[in-house]
Specification:
There is one protein chain. The protein has 360 residues and is α+β, with helices and mostly antiparallel strands. It has two domains: 114 residues, Beta-Lactamase (2-Layer Sandwich); 157 residues, PAS domain (Beta-Lactamase), CATH 3.30.450.20. Strands 2-1-5-4-3 form a five-stranded antiparallel β-sheet, with helices on both faces. The longest helix is centred in the N-terminal third of the chain and has 68 residues. The protein starts with a helix and ends with a helix.
Length: 360
């Protein structure tokens, strides 16, 4: 009886242990896939929402600059401002820099009654309200001869010339030339972020549109310095993405176009994102996969392409792999403990049955 019972018990225990392991492993894999699937859905949703939000933001920027470029009041005031500039003579730029830049108290208006100052005061009030409402960094007006005849912020690009001056090769200069080019003029032009010296070297991008007379001849260009901080604000909305989730933009030079939520300092044009998913997105691909992010941390990365006014950016939504799988790892540890307990119970039960069968 003992000889027959022992192999039977060993076989039964082995079968039960294997069944327990298979069930536990199957349950663990099922829960792991569900966790990854849930995270994938959340990341794809975040990606879609941020893609839509940035797309709408730039559509709004485009609509606003086209509205201002065709605004009759601005058209009239710009012509008067150009006349006021010419009235100041050949050294108009020097005079205006002395009045508005070297004397901060006269930022909005000087005490003289010149035609330029009277028009400038009126424009400054209207543009100021617009900038505060729409978060632009600056609004500039440039005449057909490339003179920056107006700037709300009065940085060092104010009263400079974009053909002969120090900022001719800057993003502002490129934006001006794109819409004032007589051979191939554009209705509007967006120039990607660059380190902009007049703004203390901070990243700046510009959108420009021509201001034309009734005959359709360009006589000035209006330029918006687009709001990098507002772009970041849109991108850093991370509802439902846990503690490590973030969505960000990458330019075709693989540098960030929005700030990382993990840095106290701006990361625009300062952090390189040479990751597999960023490169795929810039090639026009979309998808989601586990990879390493720009910090070298394993993440689940959702990615796609963002086309903006002739530019191609990558948009990525990511969450740390460790955070996604943390509940699964807890479950794994519990299953291991439960399996060990079941195995010990079976072993002690078999020993007891074996001892009982000997006594019998």
């Amino acid at each position: 009886m003992l000889i027959k019972t022992k192999p039977f018990l060993i076989g039964l225990i082995t079968l039960m242990l294997l069944s327990t392991l298979v069930i536990s492993l199957s349950f663990y894999q099922q829960q792991k896939q569900q966790a990854i699937s849930k995270a994938s859905s959340q990341l794809n949703l975040a990606l879609e929402l941020r893609h839509t939000a940035i797309d709408r933001l730039f559509q709004t920027i485009q609509s606003e600059i086209l509205f201002w470029s065709k605004n009759e009041s601005l058209n009239k005031n710009t012509r008067l401002l150009i006349a006021g500039w010419r009235e100041l003579g050949s050294n108009a730029a020097t005079k205006l820099r002395q009045r508005y830049i070297e004397n901060p108290k006269q930022f909005n208006s000087t005490q003289d009654n010149s035609k330029y100052n009277l028009i400038h005061t009126h424009i400054q009030k209207n543009i100021g309200e617009f900038i505060k409402a729409r978060h632009y960094n600056d609004v500039l007006i440039i005449d057909a001869k490339a003179n920056v005849i107006y700037s709300y912020m009065k940085e060092n690009d104010y009263a400079s010339n974009l053909k002969t001056g120090p900022w001719r090769d800057s993003a502002l200069g490129k934006a001006f030339r794109a819409v004032s080019n007589k051979e191939k003029p554009q209705d509007f032009a967006f120039v990607d972020f660059e380190a902009y010296v007049p703004s203390k070297g901070d990243p700046a991008s510009f959108i420009a549109a021509p201001i034309k007379n009734k005959q359709g001849v360009l006589f000035a260009v209006i330029v918006f310095q687009t709001p990098a901080k507002y772009i970041t604000k849109v991108m850093q909305h991370n509802g439902g993405m846990g503690k490590t989730g973030e969505t960000y933009l990458v330019g075709d030079d693989l540098l960030m176009r929005s700030d990382s939520r993990f840095s106290k300092l701006s990361t625009i044009l300062r952090i390189s994102v040479e990751t597999e998913t960023a490169k795929k997105a810039l090639k026009g691909e979309s998808g989601i996969q586990f990879t390493q992010d720009y910090r070298g941390i394993p993440v689940l990365s959702a990615y796609t392409t963002l086309n903006l006014m002739g530019l191609k950016w990558a948009i990525l939504s990511e969450q740390d792999r460790a955070e996604i799988l943390q509940p699964i790892h807890v479950l794994r540890d519990k299953l291991i403990i439960a399996t060990i307990i079941i195995a010990l119970i079976m072993i002690f039960s078999s020993l007891w049955l074996t001892s009982y069968s000997r006594r019998a």
